[in-house]
Design a protein that fits this description.
Blueprint: H1 15-41, E1 52-55, E2 59-65, H2 69-75, H3 78-98, H4 100-111, H5 115-126, H6 133-143, H7 150-157, H8 169-197, H9 201-209, H10 214-225, H11 227-239, H12 247-252, H13 258-261, H14 264-273, H15 278-305
Antiparallel strand pairs: 1-2
Helix pairs in contact: 2-15, 3-8, 3-14, 4-8, 5-8, 11-15, 14-15
Length: 312
């Protein structure tokens, strides 16, 4: 039998002997740890920009300290509240509509008995994940064009339309959510299919002996078997409820729908990068990050109180 990597209980083992046996593992961890320190934690020191009147010529540390000035300006900005509302609404819709989609698709694929059809379907549905939002936005603009789009041409055949899917607020939100579900549903399905394959087949056999049909097996065996996976992914999604993608709303937005399309990510780009108000947008980003951490911790604690493992 292989020797345990950690010192066995009941035996005193010197630190030197332990490191002599496991130093390769620690050496392998050095590069990932160095990456996170250099490219993740060291840049975080520049977060003080949110508390300074940042001057690009003076640098971060030589700029004047102004305290909470930019946070006050943030909460007095109408653009910020509009972006905050849009971020929460779009992310909640993504969560409510998009989160169950891969679970349902994984269960449906698992129930298929024709394996070749199952593999082809799975391949087709997760291919959109590899397309950038630039490409998807270009496809959407062609498909949903009022005059020449395939969708409106098809609707015109049955006497409906043309419909401005990308030019009206409500329709734009529906299109935004629908494209997001289409793009990521197949990729999320892979995770749940992997979790389903980990369920002991004997449990299904026992359920059949007890007279359970297909739906009963899904409800009493499959869903409980992947519950821990669902909870972990739900916690991670709740932690991003105030986070905002940049490429997705930026490429799909247009001036006519900015009232519902402008999110925190696009606001930071427009005000911070294009207008040069770095301290103002740093304050927005810090507020966003703090709220995301609060949501993540709260969701993890709720999951643990409900009897699940959580993510830590």
């Amino acid at each position: 039998m292989p020797k345990p990597l950690s010192p066995p209980r009941g035996k005193r083992q010197s630190l030197g002997i332990y490191l002599q046996r496991t130093w390769i593992l620690y050496a392998m961890l050095f590069l990932p740890m160095a990456f996170f320190v250099v490219f993740r934690y060291v840049p975080m020191t520049n977060i003080v920009i949110a508390f300074k009147d940042y001057n690009i010529f003076k640098g971060v540390w030589a700029s004047d300290w102004v305290g909470w000035k930019w946070f006050v300006a943030t909460f007095q900005s109408r653009d910020f509240y509009n972006a905050l509302r849009n971020t929460i609404v779009l992310n909640l819709l993504d969560l409510v509509i998009g989160f169950p989609a891969p679970v349902i698709l994984a269960i449906l694929l698992n129930e298929l008995t024709f394996k070749a059809y199952k593999k082809v379907t799975q391949t087709i549905v997760y291919l959109p994940h590899f397309l950038s939002w630039i490409i998807i936005s270009g496809i959407a603009s062609q498909l949903f064009a009022p005059a020449s789009g395939v969708v409106n041409l098809a609707l015109g055949k049955i006497g409906i339309g043309p419909i401005n899917f990308l030019m009206e607020n409500g329709l734009w939100v529906g299109t935004y959510i629908g494209l997001g579900v289409w793009k990521e549903m197949g990729w999320g399905t892979i995770i749940y299919l992997a979790a389903i394959t980990g369920i002991n087949p004997e449990i299904y056999e026992a359920a059949e002996v007890d007279g359970a049909g297909r739906w009963r097996k899904i409800w009493h065996v499959t869903l409980p078997g992947i519950r821990s996976t669902i909870v972990v992914l739900l916690i991670m999604n709740l932690g991003r409820i105030l986070g905002s993608e940049f490429d997705r709303p930026y490429t799909m937005a247009n001036p006519t729908v900015m009232q519902v399309a402008d999110v925190i990510g696009t606001l930071v780009y427009r005000v911070g990068i294009r207008s040069g108000q770095f301290s103002f947008t740093a304050a927005i980003g810090l507020f966003q990050s703090v709220i995301c951490v609060i949501f993540l911790v709260a969701a993890n604690n709720i999951a643990k109180k409900a009897g699940e493992r959580g993510i830590w």
